[in-house]
Write a structure and sequence with these properties.
By secondary structure, the chain is of the alpha/beta class. The protein has 13 helices and twelve strands. The strands form three sheets. The chain has a six-stranded parallel beta sheet with strand order 2-1-3-4-5-11, with helices on both faces. Strands 7-6-8-9 form a four-stranded parallel beta sheet, sandwiched between helices. It has a two-stranded antiparallel sheet with strand order 10-12.
Length: about 325
């Protein structure tokens, strides 16, 4: 592990005294001239200095904190992962700090975790196709200073550990099973077109249809939420009649979208699975509270969270663990 950058090194690089550097970086009420302050901040950024002596605390093992970044903690997908992380962290005498970005900037969460001297950061937020370069820089700097990072879903950060989820394989597995069951008409209810999880599941959906010599009826893009699933069906029904949709299987990019889609169909006077079929992904815990039962691909979400905590705290080289999905057939499809 490389040694952490010290405040003295920042002061020397900026050509100022240690006290001046401290006043700038610790937000003291006594501030030097703007030009000097800017010089200190530039030196700190270039050298990779992290406030609150993160690296020294890590080396002494005085911090027992793990930071977890999720998209939306109210989403059962993320709350299940968080439960698994928390359970495993407690076994290692670590406490969990949680940041829910709600679709916002993950950079603030990562910066806060770094300044609070967390021993590790787990990134479970929904990944976009274009990653903020400032976020990459912050995570890379955190790792250089001794922090450990694990990404969930995809392996997208150099030097980090990861728990990957085979979303493409899951999409292919689900649709192939439905085709083998005799279903021939399919529409995909997806999330935003830059959301990697949705794109991977859609790719599997398409590949299974192509393998069977079929084409999708329609592909929709809405929010990766229950509301997004509801709006997808409303959009679908505005484009074509219920009669024309009869017998179609709606494959939603996750379970909460699927549940929203079923609600919209019910409000439109359509029945699942009599008029249309619906399937999803994840097998979130509260599916048992809904009828008809949802056909889905089960991912062991609590186990995913526990695995992320285990590998990010292990004293070995960074590694990647992969998780495959399991088909669960229920009444909806």
């Amino acid at each position: 592990m490389s040694r952490a950058v010290t405040l003295s090194q920042v002061a020397a690089a900026a050509g100022v005294s240690l006290a001046t550097a401290s006043r700038v970086l610790n937000d003291s009420a006594r501030k030097p001239a703007p030009a000097i302050a800017e010089r200190v901040r530039e030196a700190a950024e270039t050298l990779g200095y992290v406030a609150n002596a993160q690296a020294q605390a890590l080396a002494r093992s005085t911090t027992g904190l793990i930071g977890l970044v999720v998209h939306d903690i109210s989403d059962p997908y993320f709350s299940s992962i968080a439960k698994g992380v928390q359970h495993r962290a407690r076994e290692d005498r670590h406490q969990l700090l949680l940041a829910a970005t709600n679709g916002g900037d993950q950079l603030d969460a990562v910066s806060a975790f770094a300044s609070h001297r967390t021993a590790a950061i787990i990134m479970a937020g929904s990944r976009r196709t274009e990653i903020d370069p400032r976020l990459l820089s912050e995570l890379e700097r955190y790792q250089r200073n001794g922090g450990r990072v694990v990404t969930i879903g995809q392996d997208w950060l150099d030097g980090a550990r990861a728990v990957t989820i085979d979303n493409r394989g899951a999409g292919h597995q689900l649709v192939r099973a439905l085709v083998e069951d005799g279903q021939t008409r399919f529409a995909f209810l997806g999330g935003p077109d830059d959301l990697v999880t949705s794109l991977e599941r859609r790719a599997g959906f398409r590949s299974a249809l192509a393998e069977a010599g079929l084409e999708p009826e329609l592909e929709m893009e809405h929010a990766f939420t229950s509301e997004g699933g509801y709006e997808s069906v409303r959009d679908l029904l505005s484009r074509t009649s219920a009669e024309d949709l009869a017998g179609t299987t709606l494959v939603a990019a996750n379970d909460v979208m699927a549940l929203g889609a079923i609600a919209a169909l019910r409000h439109a006077g359509l029945r699942v699975p009599d008029d249309l079929r619906v399937a999803g992904f994840d097998d979130i815990p509260n599916l048992r509270d809904f009828a008809p039962g949802l056909t889905t691909i089960r991912f062991p979400l609590e186990d995913v969270g526990a695995a992320a905590a285990r590998i990010v705290l292990a004293d070995d080289e960074p590694r990647v663990e992969s998780v495959a999905g399991e088909l669960v057939r229920r009444e909806s499809a």
